[in-house]
Amino acid sequence: MARQKSQSNSTAAAIARSQDLKAEIPVAEGITFRDAEEKLIYDQFVRSRQLDNWREFDLLLLYKAARLERDVRSQQQALEEMGLIVENKRGTQIPNPLINIIDGYERRLLAIIRTLSLGVSADKAGDLNKSGTTKQEADDLKKIKTGKVVNLLAQ
């Protein structure tokens, strides 16, 4: 019989998450961080899931995501210092080229986040849509809007 997965809101899951906070963050082989901020960003990405759920390949992608996020932050800071509009060599005002660079970094970062499903909530993806209305509820709502209240009475 297959082992039943514990729910994210169970006591066991809460205990596992608290133990993850104390555990050392796994780092894939060959990874070196440029600075402490990049390591901090990596740690934050890794903690988005239970530590034992990461594969080594996932950790490499998280490393790339942390590097991209660090680069986005540094480029954003430079953009704020230079301004959104800059002058080219001819003296014409143009949009700052850093805007396109930051956009490229963010697109790559979001692609990695989608690949690792970091945007999905802690619930199972199949359960996310179960909060929608049923067909009967939708039909009842339609009847209310069209004024056929008699159809809503119990028969």
Written account of the structure:
It is a single chain. This protein is mainly alpha-helical. It has a domain at 14-119. 52% of the residues lie in helices and 4% in strands. The chain is built from five helices and two strands; from the N terminus they run H-H-H-E-E-H-H. It has helices at 11-22, 36-46, 56-82, 98-115, 135-146; strands at residues 85-87, 93-95. Strands 1-2 form a two-stranded antiparallel sheet. A hairpin with a 5-residue loop joins strand 1 (85-87) and strand 2 (93-95). Helix 2 (36-46) packs across helix 3 and helix 3 (56-82) runs antiparallel to helix 4.
Largest sheet: 2 strands, antiparallel
Report the portion of residues in β strands: under 5%
Describe the global form. flat
Proportion in helices: 40-55%
- Summing up helix and strand content along with how strands pair, one would put the structural category as mainly alpha
How many DSSP helices? 5
The span between the termini is 45 Å
Rg (C-alpha, Å): 24 Å
In total, how many beta strands?
2
Which consecutive residue ranges, at least 5 long each, have pLDDT under 50? none
Mean pLDDT: 80
N to C succession of SSEs = HHHEEHH
Biggest sheet: strand arrangement: 1-2
